[in-house]
Amino acid sequence: MKFFVDTAELDQIKELHDLGMVDGVTTNPSLIAKSGRDILEVTKEICDLVKGPVSAEVVALDADTMLAEGRKLAKIADNIAVKVPLTWAGLQTCKTLSDEGIMVNVTLCFSANQALLAAKAGATFISPFIGRLDDINLDGLELIEDIRTIYDNYGFKTQILAASIRTANHMSDCAKIGADVATAPPAVIKAMANHILTDKGLAGFMADVEKAGIKIL
Ligand code: G3P
Prior knowledge:
Elements: E1 2-6, H1 10-18, E2 24-26, H2 29-35, H3 39-49, E3 54-57, H4 63-74, E4 80-85, H5 88-99, E5 103-109, H6 112-120, E6 125-128, H7 130-135, H8 140-154, E7 159-162, H9 168-177, E8 181-184, H10 186-191, H11 196-212
Parallel strand pairs: 1-2, 1-8, 2-3, 3-4, 4-5, 5-6, 6-7, 7-8
Helix pairs in contact: 1-3, 4-5, 6-8, 8-9
The structure holds SN-glycerol-3-phosphate.
């Protein structure tokens, strides 16, 4: 499973990138607003750092303006994936940009039917939002499973990009289901390293190091 990092914070992307943990980046208007940076400038800097796909989201609601925004965003770098919402206008924009050879990430997906439409419209990525379904007592992981089944049934090439990931367990669950990509905030990716028995085991080793005066350097 590829790891995308869901942030527009350059320093955090760089830290994970240096460890080989970043196969791509996703941003959205909320993350850009949080960064306090200009969307075109910060997106360019991310694209200069990361070779993999960098999702940059349109902000218009109508297809004509979305298309113009998408074409402008795509000019930032070759690794831009234009992110469009899963609305009818978003699907129209997806089809046109995909036909022009531009990667498209269709976001705000909350149903298998929406994912089916995005695949038909030529999306490179579909972004089902796990956490926001869980928030309303629905099952986000079940949606990932359903989309996996549907795409595999018909050989759709659209990649499942699990999004709105809130916990480290979401990451391993997505990997078990076979999501192609999971995008998560840096803190969630880092939390994957945590285990209480690792901490406990290390504390025991350190006590013995102290007791026996073991030195390597
Ligand atoms: O990848 C989508 C993500 O940014 C949304 O996450 O936690 O706001 O639902 P969240």
